[in-house]
Amino acid sequence: MKAIVQRVAKASVIAGENHISSIGRGICVLVGISAEDTQRDVDYIVRKILNLRLFEDENGCAWKHSVMDKGLEVLCVSQFTLQCTLKGNKPDFHSAMAADFAQPFYNNILEQLRIAYKPELIKDGQFGAYMQVHIQNDGPVTIYLESPAAPIDAKQLSKLEKQQQRKEKTRSKGNSESGKDKVGQSAISGAEGELSSEKGS
Predict the structure, then answer these.
(1) What digits encode the pLDDT tens for the residues 70-105?
(2) Catalytic: 79?
(3) Whether 81 is catalytic
(4) Composition bias, kind Basic and acidic residues: at what positions (predicted)?
(5) Which of 6, 79, 83, 112 is catalytic?
(6) Disulfide: which of 31, 32, 68, 73 matches 23 by Cβ 3.0-4.6 Å?
(7) What is the Cα–Cα distance from 124 to 162, expressed in whole angstroms?
């Protein structure tokens, strides 16, 4: 899962002619869900969103407080284009989770944010809609987040190691046979040389 977190003076979302959500000072979060994401990714991103220290303390010292520490608002916007890969210059979005699965998954992210924080301070856009997102970036401050890849369990790691060992044995065997072929070819070449010499004499 990927997320762009921006510290904002204010932000709002409009879909068509409808004003969907707006916040004052706080953070705007663009969330890109991949087809491989699980609850583990949700937990990681939610924890980071709420605990990033993007705000100053009462003495004006920067990077001391999170949005939760300051009691500020969070505006979330689903953003599948964060999962973009490029084919030449053309964006490709095959790594993004399909919309039918992504919507309940995204709703779960919002729910986890509301459980961990104050529900009334978590706002969002309109999933799947063509939106205009108005962001007044404060700083500017923009942080990129990506949930870590899932660890490989011991059985899977052992399986991968065995596969690698088999490949190495196959490669070694191939090189050995190739070496024998070269020796054989040299012997044939030598024999042909001797025959040529006998014919010449």
Answers:
(1) 999 999 999 999 999 999 999 999 999 999 999 999
(2) yes
(3) yes
(4) 156-167
(5) 79
(6) 73
(7) 47
